[in-house]
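Researcher: I'd like a structural prediction for the single chain below. Treat it as a standalone chain; there are no partners to consider.
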Amino acid sequence: MKKLMILAGLAMAATAAWAQSADSYIVKTKGVKKTEAKAVVKAEKKDEPQGTDFVSQNFRYYSLCDWQNGMKFMVLPEKYDLLVNTFRDAGTGKEVPSGRLRRKILIYTDHSVGANGRARMNFTGQEDNKKYYFELPNGSFEDYCYSRKGVPTLAYLGDVDIAREKLKGQSLVTRATDYRVDVDYESDSYNEVKVEKGMEVKVVDVGVGTRDFPVKIIVADKNGNEFYQNVALSRTNCSLRDDEFIVDNEKFAFYGSFDMLTATTKVSADYAQYMGKTVYTKYATTMTTKGGGKDNRKVKVPKLMGFRIDGMAPIHNSNYVTLTLTESETGRVYSKDVTFVNESVAGDIDGQKEDYFGYLFGFGEGRLRNTNAATRTMIREGRVGMGMTEEEVEMAVGEPDSKVDSSDGRYEWIYKRTKAWLIVQFGKSGKVIGIRTPRLNQKVTPATKKKK
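Model: Treating it as a single chain, here is the predicted structure.
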């Protein structure tokens, strides 16, 4: 009897330890309360991947064909999974509601063929030691395992363990602007927050995210503000193809949201000399800035617009650096990817000559701030208005295709547009006194003829 009581006690202790292990994967941003104590879970041992960057060196992709006994997963059902059950009880053959298994750890224990001739993938619950299986929808295991469909609801915890070991306490650089903060502990609800791109942050915790993006990385900025991103690393059991990590999904790839802050990615001494400096655009260019809503948008920035350089973040595996630029007059924040490597743009390789910092920017104040508010608006919209100076017209529409002078001091700048001519007439004072837009098929007759 005494022996049975000891065994029962050990079983209860083991069950409690398992429960803590599962719970330790649930991490939240600061301010969300948690009632259970955390427990440290060691990363499971697996083959070392080969590669040259952080992800390829540390996170190996396992297709279903390569799954090994002992691999750990957490059940994280989404809305659809709550309607269509994924697993069955191996003892009864009955479906198990996905909601009942939510946040439970399942350990893979190989595949087999059931009495009905259907292939199945077998799992053991870490907490209750119960046996479960996922019955493949069709075909043999060999046929199914080469697809990227995987097993619904399961987030691979091997990536979480390695990321926790490698990233916790490390400094990273933000590569996106959209991140999240938790709403409460029990649900997966979140609020979206805007974050400055190229900012140095520190990893404060790593936990489980979702099936497709299983690694939840919580970081804090220099002011202690915490936010997170769920990212894919090895992409084991991820239902998305590699080419689907674009557009809205780009930030869920590790390098879409973060970069390692190492000796090679820190802002070097060469870059440091530019921080805080005032520059102006020597040519009109496209930059990114926050739009009227939450989304960022690309805008055309005119020539001679002044900025202060407030951030510089090297872009992974490239010669480019993301500049964070604050407009001198309005304080509006922009970002622009540039290169400081002149050789990479020599001869306008790939049409990117305008991205070379020395070509695009000059040091000092831009002259746009000397114009009035109405003129600044027209310049940003690419329009010419009465009373503009030569400099303001050039900032708005660029250099003219031709110029016509007269001896009485008046002169015209002529621009050829898609459907019409733009003819800007200047008076003796050097300011615009007239604007004409005849159709291209009309013969252009200068209003001012040069006297002989």
